[in-house]
Structure formats: C-alpha cells, structure tokens
## 1
Amino acid sequence: MRLDRYISQTTGLSRKDAKLAIRRGRVSINGTVVTTPEHSVGADCEVTLDDQTLRAPAARYFMLHKPPGVVCSTSDPQNPTVLGLLDEPRIEELHPVGRLDIDTTGLVLLTDDGQWSHAITSPKRHQPKTYYAELAEPLLPELIEKFKKGMMLHGEDKRTLPAELEIIGEKAARVTITEGRYHQVKRMFAAQGNHVVRLHREAIGAVRLDPELQPGDYRALTDEEVESLR
Ligand code: URA
C-alpha cells in the first residue's frame, strides 16, 4: 500500500495532510525517514509518525448473498452495486472478489485485502467455483463427459479446463469450474445447445454461501474461511 494511504488509514488524516506530513519528514519506515508519499509499505514494515508507531487496521473479509439486479463493481452509473449492500465504514476501500453477472445470484466475497483477492482470482490458482444452474432444455447424461473433457467456446481458441457437471434434475445441474472466463457457465451450456435460465453461485473453494443469509444479506468471514482461500 502507498505510504500516504497507509498514514491516512491509520491516523484518520486526510490524504492531503498525510502527504504533507510525509514531505515534512515526520514519517519513518523501519527507522528511516521517508519523504515520498508514493513509497510502498509492506506487511512487515514499522511505520512511525512523530515517533509514534502506527498500527494498520485489520483487513476485512465478507460474504454476501448477491440478489439479481445488482452489479459486482465498485461503482455503476445505472445499477445498484454490491458495495451498496454493505453497511461498513470506509466502504470505498472494499471491492468484490471477481464478478457475477447482473442476473446471477449467490456467493460474492468482498475485501480490502488485494493480495487475498488476487490469490482467489489468479488464473494460476484454479480455485474451484460451484454453481447451481437451471436450464431451458432437458439435460442429457452425455453432457457430463463433455464438461469433463473441456470444450471450445465461441470466439476462443483454447478448450475449457475439465469441469464437473452433476445432473440433479431434468433441467437442473450443479457445475464446478476452475477458471473464470467471461460468462463461462452460460457459454458452456450454450455451446451444447442449451440455455441457462437461472444461475446461482454456491461456493468458492471450501467457502459455501451461508444458508442463513437471505438475498442482500452479508456477514464477516470466519478466520478459517479466510485462510482456506489464501
Ligand atoms: N458464469 C456465468 O456465465 N455467469 C456468472 O455470473 C458466473 C459464471
């Protein structure tokens, strides 16, 4: 995190006053005066202002039951955002971890810990995400193998990674994917001549949407949930 942001967060000073304090030589990192507001502060740095050690606020982690009609972005000119559903201080520091389509419901994680969200969304991590899907057309058992083998999606040149498909009703399935391609679940069913009419995310890795949460509700993650995704 930038030093001026860190000072502002830990002291309540405005960014402008934090910059001024830094430029005036009032701030040290690990005992050395630093006068550049852009300087980066690592997790194990000791930062002082006028010889007083500053403590970084603890990172925050939430799960939200996203309702339909809400977008997974920090701001949107037309639609309500997931951040608007949170009643938390310093809301502008939080961001959703990855995205769900506006009509998709279910589990959304939110945090102010950029490293943690990167670890979840990084394509290298192949973090499994499980969805419940309702389809327009009946599901054929041979689809299980097609999802497992991977398939070409329209406009792409790489097969999808193996995905798990569990058929749980004539037109209902549970799908687990380990990538995050654009509209991936909908496009996988479309590639097989079907159409998703309802999509709901149930889990990311070992973190499952809390059944106590009604659409629009959220709660803090437990330490165990946070660590399971790190
Ligand atoms: N796949 C989709 O098609 N949509 C989502 O919102 C999430 C995964």
## 2
Amino acid sequence: MHRAVCPGSYDPVTNGHIDVIERASGLFDEVVVAVLVNKSKKGMFAVDERIQMLRETTSSLTNVRIDSWHGLLVDYCRDNDIATIVKGLRSVSDFDYELQMAQMNRELSGVETMLMPNNPLYSFLASSLVKEVANYHGDVSHLVPGTVNDRIVKRVAETE
Ligand code: PNS
C-alpha cells in the first residue's frame, strides 16, 4: 500500500489544492489530506469546517480521506504509516521554503517529499489572498469550489 499525505492549513481549500489532491490520488493507493493545526494562527474557518469543505469537495475521489493533526507532520506520517509527503509548488519562492521543509522532514524521519508543480492556471492562488479579496467583497467564485465560495460569502457577512 503506497500512502501519501497532502498536508496544509486548507483555510479554506482552493481549486489549486483540489488540483494537487486529484493528481496525487492518481499516483498513490491512498491519499490522506491532513489539516495541520497551527495554534497561534486564528483562521477564517474552524478545523471542523475546513474538514467538512474538504470532504464535500473530494467526495468523488474514492482513495482520498480527510484528517487533522496538531503537531509535527513527521509524527503524523510515522503514526499513519505514510512514506511520502506531496506538496504543490506554485513558484520559485515556494521552492526555497518547500525544499528546506522537505530536507528537514527527511532528516527527522526519513520521510520523502514529492513537490508537484501546480497547474499554471493556479500559480497565483493562495488561501490567504482568497480571504483578503473576499473580505473586501471581491468575487472569488472562480478560485474555489462552489460550496466553499458559499461558506466564504456567509462568513464575511457574519463578521461584519
Ligand atoms: O497550507 P500551509 O499553511 O502552507 O501548510 C504548511 C504546513 C501546515 C504543511 C507546514 O507548516 C507543516 O508541515 N506544519 C506542521 C508542523 C511541522 O511539522 N513543522 C516542521 C516543518 S519542517
């Protein structure tokens, strides 16, 4: 069984994330999408909401499951028998940081990282920018799945 993890904050999941998850699901027997919780960062969505959105938008991918984790990614990989981390790569600036994390994770535990070049359609796309645009009532409906857009619009209205 070749199992991979696609880790991230997913606050919220974007079309760029979905592209990477779909492509990873074609390469591995099982893909776990793990919402990594950063206690010092208050997100737009609670972890349960992020998980719900990921479940809704990946339901057609039968070998993908969603989970969450507080702690080091390498510990999650060890506990869940995962040998490969898959990360999307948007730009050269992403590469610098991703390379450093990949090397650190391998040094800590031997886990390998596969960096998957993003679809160039999404090279500018980041959850943080989606939230910023949406907070100023910009239209992000073409950047995130439909159900995610609905939740963003609702959340922005609630916080005003
Ligand atoms: O979606 P993000 O915020 O770019 O994802 C970054 C994430 C959550 C994958 C990364 O910060 C991470 O792996 N955090 C878990 C804590 C950890 O293992 N830190 C050491 C990295 S070498």
